[in-house]
Structures are given as structure tokens and as C-alpha cells.
């Protein structure tokens, strides 16, 4: 099928590449000219495992093309995806500016029926707004009889495994009341629906809400475990053992119940906030979601409290090695990353940071520029050199097996603040390392 995707971010680019790989003819459009020029040469601006190879392969077959020319894109696609950002507005609700701009652009150039598919995460009722925006632009062009459909097809990929998630989705939600549009999307996604039925057709509003409900549920699991971790800390229990104890109950399950230093990224924080705002505009009290958000804010200061308890609140003259900048492993994304709160708080208290991340160093440089209290180090070992303690903010695989000699040899004194509970406290105690982690007794 001929497909057009507006927005070449984590969602748009990955979805476009995966659809192209399945044999569809895909045009990607972005307003960022630099990005499009790079993509035409196969330069993928984000780190996502497997994405570069996929993009290169499909550029070579011409299944995947890039342009900033909206007319070309709109004319090409029988199905047109909107996959642009929906950042938080001032009041916390999702800012639909980019989504509605794309809707108007589509209407400006369309001359035949189209299925417009909303992949961005948008509040309930947005499909109606997109429909109205297209309708009124078509009216102005004298094309009031030109038919089109607006479908909600929320995206559930996870950054870090986005290609795999889009290639083998758990479910594909199609929100529409049009049989025709549903059929078009069933045909589009047929290559991803062969092993077992994954397509769930539902009404538009349920589809829109399902996306928020999913992210808010996941954020709730994290904040719940973080609350348990604080209690565990105070009563002398070990949250890792508690986790195993509750995960064995299939009603709870093992997934997504790790305590840590809070969720980040471009989705959970903004989506929780947006649903709280939606509820409050409806006069509803989002008690659970408000608590989830509050706990998450507090959790991002959890390690700092431990650092201050150890070193005092004046950290001038101290240097901290920081392993992990990305908000989670296998991505270079630092949006709302706990590492940022940590670094900024450390700098405020006069400390220096020597940081290492396998993928997010360039992104860190882009965000913070060159500054005297931040040194980006080429290896995790060089980040340790002469530091007063090691802080772990992201659970990258390469941090999980600790090299005791490198840590004790590199740091001034062997002290670790681990926000991801990567190591066995007893083992580290035997190795002479002072180990502070989340929701587990520190043994010295
Ligand atoms: P992103 O910020 O990485 O990319 C958005 C892209 O859209 C940018 O390249 C931007 O230049 C482009 N853009 C903006 N306005 C445009 C316009 N008028 N025409 C063409 N391009 C335009 O965003 P993302 O992370 O890919 O997220 C996109 C949407 O998908 C958001 O609503 C997000 O909540 C949702 N989502 C994200 C994820 C994720 O893990 N990142 C997962 C599921 C859903």
C-alpha cells in the first residue's frame, strides 16, 4: 500500500521503516530539513537497535523515501499517519498544535479520499478535532464532498526495542466507526497479524483512552514499587525479595515491578499529567494518578537524599562518577531522565560529575553544552578516576557485571549509590564496597 508518515521521531521513523520492510511504499515527511537531508543519506538521528540497518535497506529498495514536501507526501499516501510530538501544554494537557498543523496540511493538498491515522498519543476527542480541522480546510477549498476518515491507532512501542515492538506488536488497536477505514488498516497491518489475531477494532474514543490507560497503568506499577521500596528501606526489608515474593502471583506478575529512581522519558511523565488534566477538566478527581506523579517526583531525589546523608549537603569539591544518562537502557533519549535531576542537584550543591553512557553522550552534550562541572568520559572506567563515589542511574547491560578492581582502584573510596539495584549488597560488602541502593539495607 502507499503510506505517508508525518513526523520522523521515535514513533514515525520506526513505524515507517517497519512498514517499508513489510513491502509497503512509504514516504516520510518532517518539517526538520536537516533531519530529512540526513535520513535521505541513511543517517538516523536517534539510537534505536536495528533501526539504521532497516532504514538503509529500505532506502535502497525505494520502499522508504523522505521529503519535506508535504504535497508529494499527501498525494502519495492512501493512508496518512500523524506521528508528531504532543508535548505538555502549560496546564499539563497535551499540546495538539503539531497534530492539528498536520491535519491542515493534509487538507491543503488532498485531492482524493484518504484515511488519516492518528498515531500520536492524544486526548480523547482529538480525532473529532482532526476531522473538523480537515473538514473546514476542505470547505475553504470548495471540496466539501471529498470523503476522508480519521482513525485512532495508538502506538505502544517501547524506546530501546521499538523496531522489535513494531515488527511483533502485542496488539494493534484500530479506533474507528468506519468499516472501510478498518478494512484499509487491516490490510496495512496484515503482515504483522499472521501468527495470531492482534488487531482490536473499537470505537475511536476507547482507542484514544486505551493508550493513556496503558501508560498510566505502567507508571502506577513503577510508583507503587517505589513507594514499597521506601517502606522496605525504613523497616529493614529488601525490596528485591519483596518483588520476587509478589511477582510470583500471576495476578501481579514479574514485569515492570522494579524499584528505582523514577520513570522518565517522553511518554510516562507527560501522559500521566495529560490524563490528570483531562480528569480535572471533567471535574473528576484523579487521586491515583496524582499520587503516581508525586511519588515519581520524590523518587528522582531518592539517591540525592542518600548522598547528602553520606557526604552532607555541601558537596563542593566532591566529584561523582555517573553511569547512565539515558532515561532507560538501549536509547539515547534523555527527556525527563532521572539522571538529569541528579546531575542538576549535584551541580547546585557544588559537585562535579564525570559521566558515561553507552549512547546518550552526544545528547547530554547537546542539552548541557560545555561546562566545567561536567566531564563526559569515553569509558565507564575512566568516569571513575579520582571520583568520591559512583552513582548508577540507568540499568545498561554493560553495568550489570561489576569489575570490583576497576571500581575500588578508580574511586577515592569505594562507595556506590545505585539507583537501579544492579548488585548484591552482601557480595559488595564482602568486597569492601559501601553500597547504597533502593529499598534494600545498605551493608558496609
Ligand atoms: P519526536 O519528538 O521524537 O518526533 C516528532 C517529529 O515530528 C519530529 O521529528 C518533528 O520535527 C516532527 N514534526 C513536528 N511537527 C511536524 C509537522 N507539522 N509536519 C511534519 N513533521 C513534524 O516524537 P516521538 O517520540 O516520535 O512521539 C510522537 C508521538 O507518539 C507523541 O504523541 C508520543 O507521545 C507518542 N508515542 C511516543 C512513544 C515513544 O516511545 N517515543 C511511544 C508511543 C507513543
Automatic annotation (TrEMBL):
**Record EC number:** 1.1.1.22
Return the protein name.
UDP-glucose 6-dehydrogenase
| Organism in which the protein naturally occurs | Microbulbifer taiwanensis
Q: Which SUPFAM superfamilies match?
A: 6-phosphogluconate dehydrogenase C-terminal domain-like, NAD(P)-binding Rossmann-fold domains, UDP-glucose/GDP-mannose dehydrogenase C-terminal domain
Q: What pathway is this protein a component of?
A: Nucleotide-sugar biosynthesis; UDP-alpha-D-glucuronate biosynthesis; UDP-alpha-D-glucuronate from UDP-alpha-D-glucose: step 1/1
**PANTHER family according to UniProt:** UDP-GLUCOSE 6-DEHYDROGENASE TUAD (PTHR43750)
The protein's UniProt keywords, in alphabetical order, are:
NAD, Oxidoreductase
Reactions accelerated catalytically: UDP-alpha-D-glucose + 2 NAD(+) + H2O = UDP-alpha-D-glucuronate + 2 NADH + 3 H(+)
Q: Which NCBIfam families match?
A: NDP-sugDHase
Domain (UDP-glucose/GDP-mannose dehydrogenase C-terminal): give its ranges.
321-425
Amino acid at each position: 500500500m502507499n503510506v505517508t508518515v508525518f513526523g520522523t521521531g521515535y514513533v514515525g521513523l520506526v513505524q515507517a521503516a517497519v512498514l517499508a520492510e513489510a513491502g509497503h511504499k512509504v514516504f516520510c515527511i518532517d518539517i526538520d530539513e536537516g533531519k530529512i537531508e540526513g535520513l535521505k543519506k541513511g543517517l538516523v538521528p536517534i539510537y534505536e537497535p536495528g533501526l539504521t540497518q532497516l532504514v538503509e535497506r529500505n532506502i535502497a529498495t525505494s520502499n522508504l523515501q523522505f521529503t519535506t514536501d508535504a504535497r508529494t507526501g499527501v498525494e502519495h499516501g492512501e493512508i496518512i499517519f500523524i506521528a508528531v510530538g504532543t508535548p505538555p501544554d502549560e496546564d499539563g494537557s497535551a499540546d495538539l498544535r503539531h497534530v492539528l498543523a498536520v491535519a491542515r496540511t493534509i487538507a491543503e493538498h488532498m485531492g482524493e479520499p484518504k484515511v488519516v491515522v492518528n498515531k500520536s498519543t492524544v486526548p480523547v476527542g482529538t480525532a473529532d478535532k482532526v476531522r473538523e480541522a480537515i473538514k473546514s480546510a476542505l470547505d475553504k477549498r470548495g471540496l466539501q464532498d471529498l470523503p476522508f476518515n480519521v482513525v485512532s491507532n495508538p502506538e505502544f512501542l517501547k524506546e530501546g526495542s521499538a523496531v522489535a515492538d513494531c515488527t511483533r506488536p502485542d496488539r494493534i488497536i484500530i479506533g474507528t466507526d468506519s468499516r472501510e477505514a478498518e478494512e484499509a488498516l487491516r490490510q496495512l497491518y496484515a503482515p504483522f497479524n499472521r501468527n495470531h489475531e492482534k488487531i482490536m477494532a473499537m470505537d475511536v474514543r476507547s482507542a484514544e483512552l486505551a493508550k493513556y490507560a496503558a501508560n498510566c497503568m505502567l507508571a502506577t506499577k513503577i510508583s507503587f514499587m517505589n513507594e514499597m521500596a521506601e517502606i522496605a528501606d525504613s523497616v529493614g526489608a529488601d525490596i528485591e525479595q519483596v518483588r520476587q515474593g509478589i511477582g510470583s502471583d500471576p495476578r501481579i506478575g514479574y514485569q515492570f515491578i522494579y524499584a528505582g529512581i523514577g520513570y522518565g522519558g517522553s511518554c510516562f511523565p507527560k501522559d500521566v499529567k495529560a490524563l490528570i488534566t483531562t480528569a480535572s477538566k471533567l471535574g473528576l478527581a484523579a487521586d491515583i494518578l496524582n499520587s503516581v506523579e508525586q511519588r515519581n517526583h520524590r523518587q528522582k531525589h531518592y539517591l540525592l537524599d542518600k548522598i547528602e546523608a553520606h557526604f552532607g549537603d555541601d558537596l563542593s569539591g566532591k566529584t561523582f562518577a555517573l553511569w547512565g544518562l539515558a532515561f532507560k537502557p538501549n536509547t539515547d533519549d534523555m527527556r525527563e531522565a532521572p539522571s538529569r535531576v541528579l546531575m542538576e542537584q549535584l551541580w547546585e550543591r557544588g559537585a562535579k560529575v564525570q559521566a558515561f553512557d553507552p549512547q546518550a553522550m552526544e545528547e547530554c552534550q547537546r542539552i548541557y553544552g560545555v561546562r566545567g562541572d561536567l566531564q563526559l568520559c569515553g569509558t565507564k572506567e575512566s568516569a571513575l578516576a579520582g571520583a568520591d563515589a559512583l552513582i548508577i542511574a540507568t540499568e545498561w547491560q554493560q553495568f550489570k557485571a561489576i569489575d570490583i578492581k576497576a571500581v575500588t582502584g578508580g574511586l577515592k573510596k569505594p562507595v556506590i549509590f545505585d539507583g537501579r539495584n544492579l548488585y548484591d549488597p552482601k557480595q559488595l560488602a564482602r568486597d569492601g564496597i559501601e553500597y547504597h541502593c533502593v529499598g534494600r539495607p545498605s551493608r558496609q
